[in-house]
Write a structure and sequence with these properties.
The protein has 1 helix and 11 strands, in the order H-E-E-E-E-E-E-E-E-E-E-E. Helices cover about 5% and strands about 45% of the residues. The termini are far apart. Strands 4, 5, 6, 8 and 9 form a 5-stranded antiparallel β-sheet that branches. Strands 3, 7, 10 and 11 form a 4-stranded mixed β-sheet that branches. Strands 1-2 form a two-stranded antiparallel ribbon. It has about 160 residues and is mainly beta.
């Protein structure tokens, strides 16, 4: 009976698996609670060395810019991804809207795949485009972000 009441009230539909990994508390604020604004980010790019050779196995973390109590901070929007054999990477993210992404690149495999490279990061602005067919007041839209090729320096 309790499950039926919850289903009728729509409580069972409040959990979206896409949000589970980021639905956590930060500075006392729940980032993606039911009824919070959200956006979809399609982010992609390529990583190479100073000579233009593609780098495989580079960890890529996509972080969003947030403000709390007058402070600006960046936090991971989802689990990191790795570059493929062509140095390419992509990430699909559903999260609380942010106007800036910080992409962090870290060589996590040591000497494998071309040597050891110093970590680096870039910041890119986002533009969210609202789908006129989506009438949800909470879903703000989509942002497609093509990150310029990043060239990592050897340590």
């Amino acid at each position: 009976p309790k499950d039926v009441v919850l289903a009728v009230l729509g409580i069972g539909g409040c959990q979206n698996p896409a949000f589970e990994e980021v639905d956590e508390e930060i500075s006392g604020i729940t980032m993606l609670a039911y009824g919070s604004p959200s956006a979809h980010y399609s982010v992609k790019g390529k990583v190479g060395d100073n000579k233009g050779q593609a780098l495989e196995g580079i960890e890529v973390r996509v972080q969003g810019r947030f403000q709390s109590d007058g402070n600006v901070y960046y936090r991971d929007l989802k689990q990191p991804t790795l570059t493929d054999g062509n140095g390419q990477w992509s990430s699909e993210i559903y999260h609380y809207p942010t106007d800036t992404l910080q992409i962090v690149f870290t060589d996590i495999d040591g000497a494998a795949n071309g040597g050891e490279f110093a970590a680096d990061s870039v910041r890119v602005a986002t533009t969210i485009v609202k789908d006129p067919n989506n009438k949800s007041p909470w879903y703000l839209g989509d942002a497609k972000v093509d990150v310029p090729t990043v060239r990592l320096k050897k340590k």
